[in-house]
Amino acid sequence: MSKPDFLPFTRPTLDEATIQGVVEVLRSGWITSGPQVKAFEAAVSSMLGGRPVRAFNSGTGTMEVALRIMGVGPGDEVITTPLSWVATSNVVLAVGARPVFVDIDPVTRNIDLSRIEAAITPRTKALLPVDLAGLPVDRERLYAIARRHKLRVLEDAAQSFGSRYGGELVGAGGDLVSFSFHPNKNVTSIEGGCLVLNDGREAQLAEQYRLQGVVRSGFDGMEVEVAGGKFNLTDVAARVGLGQLPHLQAFNGRRTQLSQLYFREFAARDAAGSGLGLPMPDFTHSNWHMFQVMLPGERLTIPRAAVMEQMHAAGIGTGVHYPAIHLFALYRAQGWNPGDFPHAEYAGRNILTLPLFPSMQEADVTRVVETLMRILAAARR
Ligand SMILES: *Cc1c(COP(=O)(O)O)cnc(C)c1O
User: Fold this and answer.
1) Which of 223, 257, 276, 302 could form a disulfide with 271 if both were Cys (CB 3.0 to 4.6 A apart)?
2) Which DSSP string do the residues of 178-239 spell out, in sequence order?
3) Contact 58 CB / ligand 1 (< 6 Å)
4) From CA 240, how far away is CA 248, in angstroms rounded?
């Protein structure tokens, strides 16, 4: 039997029509923001019930602009989760505000909604939850808290494009909603993101903050009212995104199937008995952006890095999403300490992302589970 190819933890699926479409854009004479960006925004908007949508060159830029639109700045606090890609809290610092962390719920691995109100102060301006691995935060409870305390919400839905809550897609409702189209996300525009807004005034502000604050009128009119940045998406990238959207449902369906197979394979090998933690088996809301297990660190003779190394040696890629943000030097320097958020810290040390992407085969899932369970059995205390 030949050695199987290396299995990465994720990989984008791009069809030939999209590649041809990109070639056409490259030959068209207009390659930066233009008609493809407008078409991409319109397509996402129509998916989300017609809410205004504006595209950006990254999910990070999208969130930074969202905070500026909400008027978050120096002196303000934004409540968020310590278990996320560090972009989530970095953007709060970028606008001069202070991220205030609240521990995660160890079952959902998302911000623990029951702990948010204790973290609200007179300076709190917004809530910034994350749908980790595509599992949506409970929107009803989230918005009940926001309404009670008159707070804005920026949903970091970078990982939950195509996830559902209350029968509708994430982004179809809510306050400001930010998506990312990084290549690791469920659909990609290479790099990119988009913001779902409430009205035309916010959409106009998004356009201003996106490109140097410029507002044009007539043939030669130009005005600048706000200090905007440089966050515009290119037409080349937008064409990639447009080619991905028709596949979203099939991609997410395939991710769901493969995740269900992960659960069956783990159950068949008594993963629970070995102390391995599995994600919430949610098959109504999540887009299964990632399949993440929790290693039983205290029961193993080897660290997570050694598990990853042995998986890698067996031809299997894994990832860590994510180390707890408040333990990074930048955040410790702002007063956060080890022990502040035990559940996020435990996850930060023990969480492991297994391969999951639409072009993966069933046999790949079986091989991942067999390999991981063999490594864990050999490393039992
Ligand atoms: C990917 C991601 C982002 C940022 O997206 P970029 O497009 O890489 O800038 C933000 N938050 C979360 C939770 C993400 O997964």
Assistant:
1) 276
2) EEE--TTSSS--SS-EEEE-SSHHHHHHHHHHHBTTEEEETTTEEEE-S---B-PPPHHHHH
3) yes
4) 13
Neighbours of 275 (CB within 10 A): 16
* Mean pLDDT over each residue of the chain, to the nearest integer: 97
From the CB of 12, is ligand 1 less than 6 Å away? no
3-state SS, residue 129: coil
Q: How far is the CA of 60 from the centre of ligand 1 (A)?
A: 6
Residue 1 has pLDDT above 60, yes or no: no
Using alpha carbons, list the distances in angstroms from residue 140 to 68, 102, 159, 165, 276. Answer: 25, 18, 19, 9, 31
Instruction: State the pLDDT at residue 97.
Output: 98
pLDDT at residue 4, as a whole number: 72
Write the DSSP string, 131-178. Answer: -GGG----HHHHHHHHHHTT-EEEEE-TT-TT-EETTEETTSSSSEEE
For ligand 1, whether the C-beta of 231 sits within 6 Å is no
Q: What is the pLDDT of residues 341-376, one digit of tens each?
A: 999 999 999 999 999 999 999 999 999 999 999 999
pLDDT of residue 2: 60
For residue 322, whether the previous peptide bond is cis, meaning omega lies within 30 degrees of 0, is yes
- Smallest CA-to-CA distance from 320 within 197, 184, 152 is with 184
**Which of the listed residues 85, 88, 194 should we mutate to test ligand 1's pocket, taking the one with most ligand atoms within 8 A of CB?**
85
Task: Judge whether residue 282 has pLDDT over 90.
Answer: yes
Q: Which domains does the chain have, with CATH numbers?
A: 16-247 (3.40.640.10), 248-378 (3.90.1150.10)
If one counts every other C-beta atom within 10 angstroms of the C-beta of residue 183, the result is 15
pLDDT in tens, 162-219: 999 999 999 999 999 999 999 999 999 999 999 999 999 999 999 999 999 999 999 9
3-state secondary structure of 128: strand
Q: Is 348 in the pocket of ligand 1 (CB under 6 A)?
A: no
Q: What is the structure's pLDDT at 266? A: 98
Name the residue at shortest CA distance from atom 7 of ligand 1.
59
- Interval 228-235 mean pLDDT: 98
Q: Is the CB of 85 under 6 A from ligand 1?
A: yes
Determine the Cα–Cα distance for residues 110 and 115; give it in Å rounded to an integer: 12
State the pTM of this model. 0.98
